Target: Shikimate kinase
Amino acid sequence: MGKSVTGRALAEGRSRCAFVDVDDVRQLVVAGAAAPWEGEEGHEQQRLGVVNACGLARGFVAVGIEVVIADVLTPETSDLYRRELPGCVIVHLQVGLVEARRRAASREVWLTEDEFRMLHEADAANPPHADHRIQVDTLDLRSQIGEVSRLWK
Model:
């Protein structure tokens, strides 16, 4: 299981909590959509997805609803979350390359080798800023939720 399954399950365990999957927010662009690795347009849409997800989060928080956001974290997106949601807690769920390849092979959406490398090797070379990092390769869903829940303030 990955960030979305963990994030949704974490939100379901709270008393009043929304779950925002930034992949879903980005997919709201149906004409002219570009993946984050598809040049400047993809990069811009990645930033826009973060900003829009943060807008949703602010709306929920304003009425007393907690929020879990699931996204692929990069140094730039981490900085955007800090700017858009001051005081948020950023937890980076880390997965090793072997496990990442195993998970990618089990999904309907296939990444090219270049796309996979861009996502996973860039993370290793330039890790995003996070308050906490959790290595999840060998953790089941319950354990991942437990680890993140302990960090929730």
